[in-house]
Sequence to fold (400 residues):
Amino acid sequence: MLSTVVKGNRSIVRAATSRCFSTGPAVFDLSGSFQTHNLETAPNETTECTKDELWNMFELMYTMRRMEITCDNEYKARNIRGFCHLYDGQEAVATGILQALDEKDSYITSYRCHCIALARGGSVKQVVAELFGFEEGMTKGKGGSMHFYNKKNNFYGGQGIVGAQVPVGAGLAFANKYNTPPGERMPVAIGCYGDGAANQGQIWEAANMASLWKLPMIFCIENNQYGMGTSIDRHSSHSDYYKMGNHIPGVRIDGMNVLAVREGMRFVKDHCASGQGPMYVEMMTYRYHGHSMSDPGTTYRNREEIAFTRSTRDPLEFVKKCLVDAEFATPDELKEAEKRIRKDVQQQVMEAKESAKPSMDSLFEDIFAKDLVSRSGSEFPPHIRMPDYAKSFWIDGKPE
Fold:
């Protein structure tokens, strides 16, 4: 576990009340959190964080944890059917990424997508209702566990096919570059996938095009150590995934440390948005559940390994320690916050259960376009270069 420190003239003072307050942001040490490949610079090894920022990260991560534990229970009660891939243990990855990116940046991920949907504009009620297959779900009960989507917040969903989201992410990066006037910083696109998908051919092809065209694309491997039921040592001959882009730069980040993820992704976004091309990112993380709810997760790893990780590297315990060490919170305040969040999650789950199933008629909606007229009109941005038809191979429907 990486320790936190307070440095410089940012001294912490204790208020006269029982609550702890800081005179300003605390500085946290991130030494050892990063490894780089084919880069002359690296992410900062310290980061500033205010009390509000750290509290917000803790509350989001704890909400994710409680939501996924609740989904586990609802699945076992047979209220959730089909596939269900839980994210507990990996909360620092999604939270840190979203702290570094903004809603103009495009986000696409794998089937382990409940928590990203929550953080990108969703609510516990919407997520759980979707898992129940009810119409108040994020995709109106039609997507289920692997297919959340929120175009308004540029979240392009979970993808049910292993690795298939990565070429789509490269397409989002292409769109971001295409729609940005020359010389301006581009929104980035991030495509998250697991270590089990890292050797797929479609990822190599997408990386090749992203490098050729210098797309603002982040290839993000959430290395939770196991591809389905197989350890990385057994399924990959090259497990330094951040080096897999060959000449494409890469960075490995401690994915159990939300502050390291945030600082590392700020560095990565700056690189990609400035026109320097794509980057590979490897998040070193760990999943507490099995690959999915049908996988007990203990046949290819032992319970002692899971318990050891929980006791020494848990991302939530890290954030709680940061809050206490910086005197942003007391242990009692954290317990009260946990109690409040557990109650709120349970209330939203109860509300989700009161939703209705989609009507039969609605099942046939959203399949075909209602019309072929562009919603934004036919005007092209001024920087878009249209084809010169006089130089085209085809003139008036015939070869020149």
Q: What stands out?
A: Residues 1-20 have pLDDT under 50 and may be disordered. Residues 136 and 352 are 7 Å apart (CA to CA). The first helix runs from residue 51 to 76. The two ends are 68 Å apart (CA to CA).
